[in-house]
Amino acid sequence: MAQDVGLALTVEDVLDGLSEDGRQEVMETIAAALARPESAPGPDGDAGSL
């Protein structure tokens, strides 16, 4: 059962506040998570990956 959360405007607002490098990093992370969900950071982010 899919739910429409409506985060598009919020993401755009956040991306507008980032530098070009930051925006690129966020977009690459989102693309990787969509292409390979198992590669997405967990709920605690990447803190446990070091």
The portion of residues assigned to helices is 40-55%
- Give the CA-CA distance, first to last residue: 35 Å
Element order: H for helix, E for strand:
HH
Rg over CA atoms: 13 Å
Mean pLDDT score? 75
Q: How much of the residues is beta strand, in percent?
A: under 5%
Structural class: mainly alpha
Largest sheet: none
Shape annotation: globular
Helix segment tally: 2
Low-confidence stretches: none
The total strand number stands at 0
Give an account of the 3D structure.
The protein is mostly helical and 50 residues long. Helix content is 50%, strand content 0%. It has 2 helices and no strands. It has helices at 8-16, 20-35. It is globular and about 35 Å long. The termini are far apart. The model has no long low-confidence stretch (mean pLDDT 75).
Write the layout of secondary structure elements.
Layout: H1 8-16, H2 20-35
Entry summary:
By secondary structure, the protein is mainly α.
Salient structural properties:
50 residues; mainly alpha; 2 helices; 0% strand; globular
